[in-house]
Amino acid sequence: MPQxxxxxxxxxxxxxxxxxxxxxxxxxxxxxxxxxxxxxxxLWISYALTVLLLGLAREFGGxxxxxxxxxxxxxxxxxxxxxxxxxxxxxxxxxxxxIRLPAIAADLLSALGYGAVLVVVATGAxxxxxxxxxxxxxxxxxxxxxxxxxLGNVIGGLALQLDGSIQVGDWVQLEGGRQGRVSAIxxxxxxxxxxxxDAIVLPNATLxxxxxxxxxxxxxxxxxxxxxxxxxxxxxxxPETVIRMVEDSLQSSPLPGCAxxxxxxxxxxxxxKDPSDSTATFAARYWLLDLMADARxxxxxxxxxxxxxxxxxxxxxxxxYTVFNAEIDQLGADAQRARRTARAYQxxxxxxxxxxxxxxxxxxxxPQLAYRPFASGEIIAHQGALAHHLYLLAxxxxxxxxxxPDGREQTIASLTAPDFFGEMGLLTGAPRSANIVAxxxxxxxxxxxxxxxxILRARADVAAELASFTAARQTALVAAxxxxxxxxxxxxxxxxxxxxxxxxxxFFGLAG
Length: 512
Hints:
The protein has 512 residues and is α+β, with helices and mostly antiparallel strands. The protein has helices at residues 5-29, 38-60, 63-96, 103-124, 129-146, 148-163, 204-209, 239-252, 294-311, 326-350, 359-365, 423-428, 449-458, 460-482, 486-508, and strands at 171-173, 179-185, 189-193, 199-203, 213-215, 217-218, 221-222, 225-234, 265-271, 279-288, 370-374, 379-381, 389-395, 397-403, 409-416, 419-421, 435-438, 442-448. It is 53% helix and 19% strand. It has a 5-stranded antiparallel sheet with strand order 4-3-2-1-5. It has 15 helices and 18 strands. Helix 2 runs antiparallel to helix 3 (63-96), helix 8 packs across helix 9 and helix 14 packs across helix 15. The protein folds into 4 domains: 5-146; 163-221, SH3 type barrels (Roll), CATH 2.30.30; 224-311, Alpha-Beta Plaits (2-Layer Sandwich); 338-508, Sandwich (Jelly Rolls).
């Protein structure tokens, strides 16, 4: 029986009030779900317009039109109420109870509500609900036969949502090695977004029937994903040597985006399988926290591997068909040594520490410097370590940091090429007083005690000059840290010069 105009207006007002209350609660509890309010708002506007149309039909239309418009109005009003209660349950009550209901399950609840509204309205309009469902069963059977594939995808999507085997946000690896992050699980398909900004549309039935690798998931819980970065070295280099050097470099300072409690390691994965293959294959393995940043993290690892092998003079493997010409190889090696010696000489000449050395002494010293490159993030010198050599910074920038007893790291200075560090270890044998961390790719030349000792023994005045310069540098750091005035700073520098000179004489066995 059609409702009276007063009843219709009151119903529209009640549903509108429920809409406003629901909107306020959603905005307060789940503001990210505001978009879900569009459907009930659209239904309520349609409901209100249909009620207005029903009023016009009563004035100008016939009884049949009024009856049908009344049915449509009741359906729209009922659907709007079901949608609002679904929002209140799914987006307000469950989040407060820390329960997440799968999207498809929420849609099923709404569908059941819509079905109940349809039955109630049909019964009220004088229709036989049994005949309606009987006819619907026949139609459903026909649709099931013609839409088997679609229904399989729908059932697959429902199964994925309910059992939680794959969830939004999971990283998956598909057949063929393609990887991506699940961004949505819908009724018919699942969307997987790749790192390149693309989206893969996977039918849910296919997803259920195909083996899928869940990346970064172990025993149902999130876990860092292990990445493998392969590199090849000539088989004549002992695998133990390569593993030790690369592991030391990877573990010496943290890799960005990697799990700090799971240290990286290196394994030898293969040796030459046939006589023509003269390489050994290694893998640097690390645990990645952010799977979106895998390419950048792999690049950091490759950079570390490259510089540590270069530092040790170990070349990456050459193709097996390469023809070696000893004479040409020797010419190339000699040319490279000449270039590095010339560069080392230029660095010695530009560093204030060695300003008192003559050209002849610099030319004598340059070939004895060892070239040492470092990658960004590597720790070049460790606080407290004993190392009787210094580094001449030829290119790049490093940070000088102090590690407090409780493990906190504090940056106290930055050095940019040309410069030097580690002079106290070379001149006095003292342990490293700070950490030196490469903040960019760095080229260094390493000068050890034996290479420098001859100059000190030949020139006694050089020791005094070096002690004075080193003391000035040390005093500047103390003055900055403790706020010394000019007089105190001068006195401290004199004391520090005498102390360093005495240590140098003791360390090198020089006459006083």
